[in-house]
Write a structure and sequence with these properties.
heterodimer; A: alpha+beta; 2 domains; eleven-stranded mixed beta sheet; 11 helices; 13 strands; elongated; B: alpha/beta; Rossmann fold; six-stranded mixed beta sheet; four-stranded antiparallel beta sheet; 7 helices; 10 strands; about 25% strand
Chain lengths: ~375, ~220
């Protein structure tokens, strides 16, 4: 009974701890799932158009391009979850030729304004907040593109149509949305294809960076800037990054509050359980006092037992706590919440349980030591 | 101690419930070392209270009580006195249920100067002497009432006490088992020359003692 009671306390500490520690990373994942936290761009700009700008297709608006080798370097920086290169350019596609399966819109002069061309590896489009709403993603090797929802509506293009860009024909394989007006009016293709079209092999406009779980993206952005003080700077299109970091601070505070409640609950359970155990053993304690055990010896016995019970309860509580969280997770009762298994949590949990065992045993031990032998022996 | 008395009591009083219940009313008693004394009386006569005073389990309100040379009216913890001088045998044996017979007997010796080897040796020897040498590793719940009381007697003897205080040791046993326990106590008293004070309300048990003290309403009447 005592083990069961303390095990519930330990399970509460461990179980809530697992969930609580997983809360920041779960929330961060939910808030920024797939999308980059910030982008890295070249620090200097050249309005005259630096190297590589203004190829057969496109204008880079004076933004200097970054050597693609920087992607690998940034990927190595501690706290970087992933880094993806993106080439962006604006082009007027009025002169391009296009075919359409839509008979009501023959011809190819529907792109009457500047259109954004985005080159990104097809496996990493979510980093740019691109969500395919219809069709599929393009192949990195084939002449395939996806087209933004508003661009598709404006040009009356749909899946299966072709668009000619710089004398190359691309097949529309999907429609996407980003929620960004400019990007939704654009076209996305593989990075290699756009680099070839713009004669910018090995160059990217920006590097999208996603921080690893638990890493503060603001601090990471600063770290990257400090590593490349003359070359690179960072910016975020996610205006909520700061707000997100503030939100994570709030969540971290909540984690502490939840853990504190769990510890208090565990502590109260230990005290109640040990008091009950002492009460049940009143007569036994009376016998021990009668045959010569000192008050100090009784205190040592009760606290020792409390610690021993806590040790057993730690094992039971760990198994129960982890088991319950795993069951909750596998049955989908806590969707999106990922328990965080860390050594520090288990050390904290075991430490807290032992501390609870000692502190929780002190008052019951004191009570037991104050029992008068004659009263204890009369206890039924 | 004078005249070989191991217990000297003078004008001892004890009341409970704020003075409403008088348990001991001016007790005067002397018991010699090695004597076997039984205290008789009906329920509520004060015999168990007197035994508790001798064993320093409770404290008197007034008077004097000296046991084995120790003044028990002093305000201190008498745990060491009980450990070194007294062996208790209770009516309900009071063994620790989750400890084996062997461990129960060793309890008084835990954290004393006695080595582990000696503890085991003493306990086994005593359990052999009460014919329980083959039940060392049993839990008390597996024993009969008489066997449990024999374990309790072994426990009372393990610290080589000067005095054994037995409170109705046969009270919860049938007459056959009661006889066995009584004979065992008498045998130990004679063999070890230990002072034995036995509380009972049964005539035949009381009469087996060297001296019978009768109590009534907190007083010694004969």
């Amino acid at each position: 009974m005592a083990i069961f009671g303390i095990a519930i306390g330990v399970a509460a500490v461990i179980g809530l701890g697992l969930l609580a520690e997983g809360l920041p990373s779960s929330t961060q994942s939910a808030l920024t799932e797939g999308a980059a936290d910030f982008s890295v761009i070249a620090k200097t700009s050249n309005t005259d158009g630096p190297n590589g700008q203004g190829g057969p297709v496109g204008s880079f608006g004076g933004q200097e391009l970054i050597n693609q080798t920087k992607i690998g370097e940034i990927q190595q920086i501690s706290g970087v979850g992933s880094a993806v290169g993106v080439l962006r350019t604006m082009t007027n596609l009025d002169n391009t030729t296009s075919t359409t399966t839509n008979s009501s819109s023959p011809g190819g002069d529907n792109f009457r304004s500047m259109t954004t061309l985005i080159g990104i590896d097809s496996n990493s489009i979510s980093m740019n907040d691109i969500v395919i709403t219809n069709g599929s993603v393009y192949s990195n090797e084939a002449n395939e593109i996806i087209i933004g929802k508003s661009a598709a509506e404006r040009s009356n293009k749909t899946i299966g149509d072709t668009i000619s860009i710089s004398n190359q024909t691309f097949k529309v394989v999907g429609i996407y949305e980003t929620g960004n007006f400019q990007d939704d009016g654009g076209i996305v293709m593989s990075l290699d294809k756009l680099q070839n079209l713009t004669n910018n092999t090995g160059k990217v406009s920006l590097i999208l960076v996603k921080a690893s779980n638990g890493t503060n993206s603001g601090k990471l952005a600063t770290a990257i800037q400090e590593q490349y003080p003359d070359e690179l700077t960072t910016s975020t299109s996610l205006s909520g990054m700061d707000r997100m970091n503030q939100g994570l601070d709030v969540i971290n505070t909540a984690v502490w509050a939840i853990s504190l409640v769990a510890i208090l609950v565990g502590g109260i359970i230990v005290v109640i359980t040990m008091l009950k155990a002492v009460s049940e053993r009143t007569r036994e304690i009376g016998v021990l006092r009668a045959i010569g055990w000192t008050r100090q010896r009784i205190i040592k016995m009760i606290i020792g037992e409390s610690i021993l019970l806590s040790l057993i309860a730690i094992v039971v509580g760990l198994i129960a706590g982890i088991g319950i969280v795993e069951i909750l997770g596998s049955t989908g009762m806590i969707p999106g919440l990922m328990p965080s298994f860390s050594v520090s949590l288990f050390v904290k949990g075991i430490g807290v349980a032992l501390l609870l065992g000692i502190i929780g045993g002190i008052y019951p031990a004191y009570r037991a030591s104050r029992l008068e032998p004659t009263e204890a022996l009369r206890y039924e | 101690m004078s005249d070989g008395n191991i217990i000297e009591i003078k004008d001892l009083t004890k009341s409970f419930d704020g003075g409403n219940i008088t348990a001991l009313d001016g007790i005067n008693l002397e018991i010699k070392e090695g004597e076997f004394v039984s205290i008789m009386g009906p329920s509520g006569s004060g015999k168990s209270t007197l035994l508790n005073m001798i064993g320093a389990l409770d404290k008197a309100d007034s008077g004097q009580i000296k046991v084995a040379g120790i003044d028990l009216m002093q305000s201190e913890d008498f745990s060491k006195f009980r450990l070194n001088k007294i062996g208790f045998v209770f009516q309900l044996h009071n063994l620790i249920p989750n400890m084996t017979v062997h461990e129960n007997v060793q309890i008084p010796l835990i954290e004393t100067d006695v080595t582990d080897e000696e503890m085991i040796e003493r306990s086994a020897e005593l359990l052999n002497s009460v014919n329980l040498g083959n039940r060392l590793d049993q839990l008390p719940t597996k024993l009969s009432g008489g066997e449990r009381q024999r374990v309790a007697i072994a426990r009372a003897l393990v610290n080589h006490p000067s005095i054994i205080l037995a409170d109705e040791p046969t009270g919860a046993l049938d007459s056959r088992m009661g006889d066995i326990i009584l004979n065992l106590l008498r045998e130990i008293h004679q063999k070890e020359n230990v002072t034995l004070v036995l509380v009972t309300h049964e005539d035949y048990v009381a009469n087996s003692a060297d001296r019978v003290i009768n109590m009534m309403d907190g007083k010694i009447v004969t």
